[in-house]
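User: Design a sequence. Structure:
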């Protein structure tokens, strides 16, 4: 639910940058350290990004707060970083909620906290459901 094996050049290159960071730093640092290191790798790869882009959150058309995704890449892919021993369903839900809030179709949830880099590809559940209900998209 919400994840799918989507292969494309941009997410492939982002994951490559994350792999470089993880192979150089390993696990055990705070999330912000990985965020700064990934920004350096994205710059070296000439991948455009915005870091900590603030997004207003609305409920019943009323502003109730803000949230910041770790990265918005090329105005197309949301990237949320974690530095935890094991990813939980709550992390996946957070990533999917960010896709909806930012109105983006795809994202990556990347965990630097495990011994091996963990990556989950995410699809916006609202966009995905609309695609399935439209016969032209099948």
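Assistant: Done.
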């Amino acid at each position: 639910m919400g994840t799918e094996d989507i292969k494309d050049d941009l997410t492939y290159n982002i994951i490559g940058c994350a792999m470089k960071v993880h192979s150089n730093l390993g696990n055990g640092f705070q999330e912000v350290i990985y965020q700064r290191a990934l920004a350096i790798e994205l710059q070296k790869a000439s991948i455009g990004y915005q870091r900590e882009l603030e997004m207003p959150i609305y409920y019943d058309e009323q502003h109730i707060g803000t949230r910041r995704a770790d990265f918005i890449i090329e105005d197309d892919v949301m990237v949320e970083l974690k530095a935890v021993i094991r990813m939980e369903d709550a992390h996946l839900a957070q990533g999917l909620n960010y896709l909806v809030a930012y109105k983006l179709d795809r994202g990556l949830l990347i965990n630097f906290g495990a011994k091996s880099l963990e990556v989950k590809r995410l699809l916006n559940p609202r966009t995905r459901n609309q695609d399935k209900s439209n016969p032209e998209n099948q």
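The chain is about 40% helix and 30% strand. Residues 9-131 form a domain with the Lambda Exonuclease; Chain A fold (CATH 3.90.320.10).
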